[in-house]
Amino acid sequence: MTPELTALTLAALLQMLQLTLYSVAGQKQVGTRTALKPRDEGISLTGKAGRIQRAMNNHFEGLILFGIGVMVITYSGKNDAMTALASGLYLLARILYIPAYVFGWVPWRSLIWAVGFFATLYLLLAALM
Fold first, then answer.
1. Would you give the distance in Å from CA 53 to the centre of its chain?
2. Does domain 3-36+47-128 have CATH number 1.20.120.550?
3. Mind naming one GO cellular-component term on file for this protein (predicted)?
4. How many helices (DSSP H) and strands (DSSP E) are in the chain?
5. Distance in angstroms (rounded) separating the CA atoms of residues 27 and 35
6. What is the pLDDT of residues 3-29, one digit of tens each?
7. pLDDT in tens, 91-118
């Protein structure tokens, strides 16, 4: 498996971990009964649980673009040491983004997010070159 595909797989597992963290934090905040009922009406989480939810949603958004970048690089055969590095940087940024968002690391949260964004941008542009 290429380093890019490995990073994508680990990023997907990270998303599953975030979903678990969100589920536990959300249930702790609203209670098991509320967490188990249908979502006909939205449940608004606040504080740390809300930040965990927003970090998870942010990763869903970024993971789609990163996945496209990895697939295009892989299938076009344009992967190299730089695309492997960009994929590793994306994964590292997404790992660091969770505590940065949950604990409000200002301005580091935005800088960490930017590393992941530009790593993804690099993959997409490298595929076109």
1. 12
2. yes
3. membrane
4. 5, 0
5. 5
6. 999 999 999 999 999 999 998 988 887
7. 999 999 999 999 999 999 999 999 999 9
